[in-house]
């Protein structure tokens, strides 16, 4: 075990992104990531923790959102605000959204996984199948007959 | 080309799900491919209407939404957690069919309701007016032929299952549906008359997926007529609740869905006379009283469970006349939703039919929960939910 478990106040963890930038992060924030937690428990984190799958700009975003998430606990207004930011990001910069989600998934941060998944869910709400396919680059593999059959079977659900 | 890394093993999501990578054309500045378990998580958050739209996206999506039991469970849990504002409205016409309207709000604060409609008919030989008795965690309890045949059904999937019954309906009456959250079991409650003198009755429970009914031992009102008359889906604090309307003093009986023990819950001190109705509102036991004098409605909320002093009079509202008595849901903290329901308009439901037939409103969790999970020995059938022409 690392000697970190009983230090409660701001111990600093040093992390290095894939493009070589070094970050100093408070332990409480870093431990939001189950990946980092496991690395520390395995004692392979005495020095700088390498994060080969996360670039610096994305890591900035991750930390920022971790902090926001910690702040908004029990604050309904902030929660709403954070939830509504997803739409903007998905509209303006879907590429960054993907990278953020990928990083969050890799770092295994439960709270942000929840948030980013909710963002995309909110974004998909009410969109037509065609739009969703375009957005997520999914190929339509239904024949027109199959499509008609689904429409017929669930007519109550389609306008 | 960038794809998600294989380190996904450590994902917080269900690791038993098979992961597949799509190799569709990926361009810069697009959302890149998302692993299937995360897609599952995302789709499980969608309201039911959007979810059904998504069945048309691709075969993989359709199979996930319609055929994957892991997804069904995920969506079900999520829907319960979020307490989505999904309402089930049904017409109350005296005909062999009931028109069902599933109403969703598209976003909080938006006054737009999305309506899905279907009519409920029974495809078996009998042709009698179905009655929606109650809704619990995504399942409906529907009675045909005045309680002779009682079905449990998920109106979203169309699955239905008949409850076992050998008794005549006048001897055995289904009076409640609840959920034991510890065991994740649905339980149906019925009252059975015993043909002996003096008058006697017993309460039995059927666990969905089994084939029998078993008696609940400590029923306190076995010798009293008029107790536990209404159907109850009022699930608060893990117990179902019934209110006696006709008895004095007023009392509320509870039945714990987990240990199956009866209890008595204190009631508020009512000063006026009117029709009493119980419901679960935001997890609180709530009593509505529609006054005989002016048809206005008093709403009482028990802020702390089982504490008499915590009954608080919340608000007085006037009931739209077309809402008939069996309302288990009243969104009285939300004016826009009240207006929405009031303004609820549908070609099949003109002002006239509202006035004459009435419209029932029920809070319903739209869920993909499958009855096959609770199959037991019985067959899972399909109830027809036809689109209204």
Automatic annotation (TrEMBL), chain A:
It holds the Pfam family Skp1. InterPro entries: SKP1, SKP1-like, SKP1-like_dim_sf, SKP1/BTB/POZ_sf, Skp1_comp_dimer, Skp1_comp_POZ. Pathway: Protein modification; protein ubiquitination. Keywords: Ubl conjugation pathway. Coiled coil: none annotated. Part of a SCF (SKP1-cullin-F-box) protein ligase complex. Involved in ubiquitination and subsequent proteasomal degradation of target proteins. Together with CUL1, RBX1 and a F-box protein, it forms a SCF E3 ubiquitin ligase complex. The functional specificity of this complex depends on the type of F-box protein. In the SCF complex, it serves as an adapter that links the F-box protein to CUL1. Belongs to the SKP1 family. This is SKP1-like protein. It comes from Cinnamomum micranthum f. kanehirae.
From TrEMBL, chain B:
It holds the Pfam family F-box. Transmembrane segments: none annotated. SMART domains: FBOX. It comes from Cinnamomum micranthum f. kanehirae. This is F-box-like protein. Residues 28-74 form the F-box domain. It comes from the Eukaryota.
């Amino acid at each position: 075990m690392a000697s970190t478990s009983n230090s409660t106040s701001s111990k600093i963890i040093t992390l290095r992104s894939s493009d070589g930038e070094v970050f100093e992060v408070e332990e409480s924030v870093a431990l939001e990531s189950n990946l980092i937690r496991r690395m520390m428990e395995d004692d392979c984190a005495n020095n700088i923790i390498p994060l080969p799958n996360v670039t610096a700009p994305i890591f900035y975003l991750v930390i920022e959102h971790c902090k926001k998430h910690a702040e908004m606990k029990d604050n309904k207004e902030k929660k709403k605000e954070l939830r509504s930011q997803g739409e903007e990001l998905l509209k303006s910069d879907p590429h960054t959204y993907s990278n953020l989600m990928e990083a969050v998934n890799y770092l295994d941060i439960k709270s942000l996984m929840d948030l980013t998944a909710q963002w995309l869910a909110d974004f998909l709400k009410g969109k037509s199948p065609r739009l969703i396919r375009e957005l997520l680059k999914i190929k339509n593999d239904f024949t027109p007959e199959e499509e008609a059959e689904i429409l017929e079977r669930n007519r109550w659900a389609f306008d | 080309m960038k794809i998600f890394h294989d380190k996904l093993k450590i994902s917080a999501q269900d690791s038993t799900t098979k992961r597949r990578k799509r190799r569709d054309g990926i361009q810069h500045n697009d959302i890149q491919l998302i692993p299937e378990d995360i897609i599952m998580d995302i789709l499980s958050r969608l309201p039911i209407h959007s979810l059904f739209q998504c069945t048309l996206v691709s075969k993989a999506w359709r199979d996930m939404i319609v055929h994957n039991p892991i997804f069904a469970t995920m969506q079900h849990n999520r829907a319960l957690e979020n307490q989505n504002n999904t309402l089930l409205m049904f017409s109350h016409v005296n005909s062999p069919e009931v028109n069902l309207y599933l109403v969703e709000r598209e976003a909080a604060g938006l006054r737009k309701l999305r309506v899905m409609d279907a009519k409920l008919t029974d495809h078996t030989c009998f042709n009698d007016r179905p009655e929606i008795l109650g809704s619990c965690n995504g399942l409906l309890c529907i009675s045909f032929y005045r309680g002779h045949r009682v079905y449990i059904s998920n109106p979203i999937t169309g699955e239905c299952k008949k409850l076992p019954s050998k008794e005549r309906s006048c001897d055995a009456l289904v009076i409640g549906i609840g959920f034991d959250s510890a065991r994740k079991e649905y339980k149906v409650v019925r009252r059975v008359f015993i043909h002996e003198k003096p008058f006697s009755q017993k309460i039995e429970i059927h666990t969905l997926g089994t084939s029998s009914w078993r008696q609940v031992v400590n029923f306190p009102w076995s010798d009293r007529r008029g107790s536990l008359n209404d159907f109850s889906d009022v699930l608060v604090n893990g117990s179902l609740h019934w209110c006696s309307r006709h008895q004095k003093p007023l009392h509320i009986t509870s039945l714990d869905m987990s240990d199956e023990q009866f209890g008595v819950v204190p009631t508020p001190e009512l000063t006026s006379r009117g029709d009493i109705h119980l419901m679960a509102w935001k997890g609180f036991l709530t009593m509505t009283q529609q006054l005989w004098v002016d048809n206005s409605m008093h709403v009482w909320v028990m802020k702390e469970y089982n504490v008499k002093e915590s009954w608080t009079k919340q608000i007085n509202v006037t009931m739209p006349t077309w809402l008939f008595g069996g309302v288990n849901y009243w969104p009285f903290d939300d004016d826009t939703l009240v207006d929405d329901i009031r303004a609820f308009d549908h070609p099949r439901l003109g002002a006239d039919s509202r006035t004459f037939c009435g419209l029932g409103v029920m809070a319903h969790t739209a869920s993909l929960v499958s009855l096959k999970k609770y199959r037991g020995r019985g067959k899972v059938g399909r109830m027809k939910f036809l689109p209204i022409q």
